[in-house]
Structure prediction request, 107 residues.
Amino acid sequence: MNIDNIFYKISDAFSDEIFQTLLETETIKIERILSYGQSTPPARWYDQEQNEWVILLKGRARLLLEGDSNPIELHPGDYLNIPAHQRHRVEWTDPNQVTIWLAVHYK
Prediction:
């Protein structure tokens, strides 16, 4: 059994968001997402086949759900469940520090 750490192996800055699968089975996928000032491109929405439970571990972010006029401000420890096919987008992540997300995709 290998032990790893969610906060290890993180560079100081990067140009694209980094998605790393930590565990995947037929019914669940757990991934670490690293952001450093990235956001979803304009007019693009995520529309996923599975539910997604996400927690912000470090940094800050704003997430917009389709139909809402104001983004949700996320701080370390904040989490939410996004139902399958709930269109959403990342409006902003902190450009001055890495933002670490833990996402659990499930059926």
